[in-house]
Target: TANA protein
Amino acid sequence: PAGDSWRAKYEEELRALRDALDLAFREKCTAELDRDNLYEQVEQVKSRCQKEQAAREEAKKQLSLSRKELEEERRAQIWLKERAVQLEKEVEALLEVHEEEKAGLDQEIASFSQSLESFPCAPAAFQPVEVEDYSKRLSEIWKGAVDTYKAEVSQLESSLCQAKENLWKAAEDNQQSQLQLQHLQKDLEGLKVRKEMLEENLARQWQEQRGEAEKFQLAMEALEQEKQSLRVQIAQVLEDRQQLMHLKMSLSLEVATYRTLLEAESTRLQLPAG
Model:
């Protein structure tokens, strides 16, 4: 009965030690799984940061291109304004030259008419056909000058309209570029905010990971210490068991010896005295 009680107690302690080892192993597996999940989350955050960085670089590139296009459009607008002013000056100069030529032709015609009226009769060498030819030539010269002037004015008006159309188009494109630039700046600000949030989340998760890693390390060290302690306890239990076995054997031998002595003494006492 005493041996059975000792065995039951030993087996109960051994079961408790095994349960503690199983619990420590399960906690270790859980900690490793949490560590792997946290590492995967960190990798996902890094991947998102890389994508945001690429998107931010692309936005910067688009912003730089938009600024270059805006600068080119601004220069084109300035050139068109200067060209429009130049064309207006050329039109004014041509109109002035035309007025001067017209005034000169009017004066020549008036002088020629006065010269014709001053003669009482036409000389014999001066025929009416020559006057008609001269008038016809003057009409042709005047018509040619007027046609040339009209062509130049039409060309200048066409150039001016084209310049105004280009200017209006450049202004419209400039406005669209400004809107696009504002959208890009807004997107860039949004990307900056998202980057800061991701960096904060990454830093927080990194701190949490470090904390979890430290806790895991402490738990592993505690489990290792507990494991060593359990080994020592198991070794002590085995040693105590061995000592108890030796003690039991020794007691058994001693009991057997006493029993033999008692039986011998009993036999001796039962024999009749000689």
